[in-house]
Amino acid sequence: MNRDFSKIKNQKEPWEEEFQELQSLKKEYLKLQMTEGQLEKLRKTIEEAEKMNQKENKKRKRIVSAVAAAAFAGIFLILPNTSAEMAYAMEQIPLIGSLVKVVTFRDYEYETDRHMADIQVPEIELEESAENTQIQENLERTKDEINTEIQEITDKLIKEFEAHIEEEEGYQDVVVKGERLATTEDYFTLKLICYQGAGSGYQWNYYYTIDLNTGERLQLKDLFYEGTDYITLISESIKTQMQEQMDADESIYYWLNDEIEEWNFHTITEETSFYLNEKDQVVIGFDEGEVAPMYMGTVEFEIPKEVLSEIRKVQGQ
């Protein structure tokens, strides 16, 4: 998968032409097709995540399964999913307890010999009321904002998929799944996994983190005291981890010290994707091709607690 750029570097052409050629190569490189093996690996990863959720809530599902089957029998609708037909489903499957839970709002499936869509649209619901009225109001607002955003994303993917079918433009695969990440008494995070393949494949993720103590959706800057340089500390930690991983495994490669300077990772931004894991560590996520070649897939970096201990806000402040 690694490209040899030495020939490009040694070409005796005007720098303008060389720059244009490099730009073209980069676009081509970023659009490398995800193989069937890689796509299958993605599907297995998603299936494993679902199995973990199922195992975690096995006891609870035994209790509610009979009730849920009866309660939703009247609204559960499945259309035959054969040939060019589509299947839609509404189901209520709680994944977590406490104040917040996740249900499958819509299940869109389509499969022929040329096209495949497996889009499960998650939706956040409030399982019980918060003791504080203001927190409850914040939770309601945050829930609605996140659900609207997720539905807009998935509606757009479905629309693009159906348009592609109508235009009969080659093969296409679309996969969307929701995954509950580490949830603590203080935080809840939903991860939306998206994959789209049409000649080439690309995976990207969305992270939605809610502070359960305030009911607000968290931004990265909300975790730190005002005026502190969390961006530099996190960025330097990521660079260190990138280099350590490359030194330990030659199959791992990040754009850190690449000959093409514009490709190299330098810093995160306030909008960089993140979540908090069960150890209360900040985890930074990057989409395919963002900081590494496409074969590396989506990548995440756990930031050690000691790196941010002096600038992290104390919970509740």
Strand content: 15-25%
Cα distance spanning the termini: 47 Å
Tertiary shape: flat
Number of helices: 7
Unreliable runs, pLDDT <50, ≥5 residues? 1-16, 29-33, 53-97
Name the structural class.
alpha+beta
The neighbouring-strand order within the major sheet is 1-2-3-4-5-6
| Share in helix | 25-40%
Number of strands: 9
Oligomer: single chain
**Could you spell the SSE succession in H and E letters?**
HHHHEEHEEEEHEEEH
Biggest pleated-sheet summary:
6 strands, mixed
Computed over alpha carbons, the radius of gyration is 22 Å
Q: What's the average pLDDT?
A: 77
Concise structural overview:
The chain is built from seven helices and nine strands, in the order ααααββαββββαβββα. Strand 2, helix 5 and strand 3 form a beta-alpha-beta unit.
List the helices and strands and how they pair.
Blueprint: H1 6-10, H2 15-30, H3 36-56, H4 58-71, E1 100-111, E2 115-126, H5 133-167, E3 172-180, E4 187-197, E5 201-211, E6 216-217, H6 230-248, E7 274-276, E8 282-286, E9 299-303, H7 305-308
Parallel strand pairs: 2-3
Antiparallel strand pairs: 1-2, 3-4, 4-5, 5-6, 7-8, 8-9
Report on the architecture of this protein:
36% of the residues lie in helices and 22% in strands. The protein has 317 residues and is an alpha+beta fold. Strand 2 (115-126), helix 5 (133-167) and strand 3 (172-180) form a beta-alpha-beta unit. The longest helix has 35 residues, at 133-167. The termini are far apart.
Observed structural traits:
317 residues; alpha+beta; flat; 6-stranded mixed sheet
